[in-house]
């Protein structure tokens, strides 16, 4: 049972992290995230911070963790979460490069 709870906690954390990173990717369809920082839209930044904060609450408050059938992650497990989540930034940046090239060719 412990392995199932660990797997579902890791998968939930990866999904939450990917969705928050995707929200930042959506700030601009063509401009890189390195050019248009997430601070351009403070409401989006605040919404993502609240979402991550609530995820931490359900992970680290024992009563809520029991209700959601998850448990706290170790620092190594958080490393794994980010290792599986961060490629969404790289993939979207590559797609934006191709989009800019296509737009330049159409002009």
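^ Assign residues to that structure.
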């Amino acid at each position: 049972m412990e392995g199932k709870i660990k797997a579902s906690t890791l998968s939930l954390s990866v999904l939450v992290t990917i969705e928050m990173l995707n929200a930042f990717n959506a700030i601009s369809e063509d401009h890189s995230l390195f050019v248009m920082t997430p601070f351009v839209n403070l409401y989006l930044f605040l919404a993502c911070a609240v979402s991550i904060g609530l995820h931490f609450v359900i992970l680290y408050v024992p009563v809520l963790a029991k209700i959601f059938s998850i448990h706290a992650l170790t620092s190594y497990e958080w490393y794994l979460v980010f290792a599986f989540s961060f490629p969404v930034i790289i993939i979207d940046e590559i797609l934006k490069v191709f989009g800019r090239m296509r737009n330049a060719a159409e002009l």
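The chain has a mean pLDDT of 91.
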